[in-house]
Specification:
Keywords: Membrane, Plasmid, Transmembrane, Transmembrane helix. The chain is an all-alpha fold. The protein has 2 domains: about 55 residues, no CATH class; about 55 residues. It is built from 5 helices and no strands. Helix 4 crosses helix 5.
Length: about 120
């Protein structure tokens, strides 16, 4: 807890308040800081600390690792979805560009044929 508080930058005041409340009464500190909406910034940290204290440390660490792996999987899926959306947009733009190019070629060919027919030899 002390190491976490000392190494914190932005959350240091909240973590120090939690640490003081923790030293006075552990259960009340957890309940107070987990339910208070003003302290949502450290809610995940407090939840993890309580999980580590209340359960087997190996199980808690495995849960944290699984949580981190799940976050990585979610990020990869979101990235793939963004790429697929961009690929769909590129395909749509390519199709529209191809159709416009074909229309231009056909119009040019038709106008050329009309000019040749209008010419007198």
């Amino acid at each position: 807890m002390t190491i976490l508080t000392n190494n914190a930058k932005y959350l240091k005041p909240l973590l120090e308040k939690f640490q003081m409340a923790y030293y006075m009464n552990r259960d009340e500190a957890y309940n107070l800081f987990m339910l208070d909406k003003d302290k949502q910034a450290i809610n995940k940290i407090i939840t993890l600390l309580r999980q580590i204290e209340d359960s087997n440390k190996e199980l808690a660490l495995n849960n944290i690792k699984k949580y981190n792996e799940n976050i990585d999987k979610i990020r990869k899926l979101e990235y793939q979805n963004k790429i697929e959306n961009k690929e769909g947009l590129i395909l749509l733009l390519f199709t529209i560009g191809t159709v416009l190019l074909m229309m231009l070629i056909v119009n040019f060919a038709v106008s050329s044929v009309n000019q040749v027919q209008n010419m007198k030899f």
